Description:
BolA; about 35% helix; Transcriptional regulator
Amino acid sequence: MSMQQQIQGKISSAIACKHLNVINESHMHSKGTESHFKVIVVSEEFAGKRLLQRHREINEILKDELANHIHALAIHTYTPDEYTEQGGEAPDSPNCMGGSKSS
């Protein structure tokens, strides 16, 4: 199972998602590793929760992957209404500043 599939499976098992997109962005940063990801999670469960609470929830779900496999994770969490207000898109991930990037 790829790291992308593992992330998708863990999040979808833990949160009732209206929309979930796990994007492997490793090709933009690293050669030959699955280490950079962006997750877009849309769920009613985020209603009434602050951004920090939402991110902590995702970090807790993926704590093993973050500790052992993932170099960078861009997290975008929305309620369905917030996602609609965003036009159904999340911002681009920032450029990697090092770590597993090779020339």
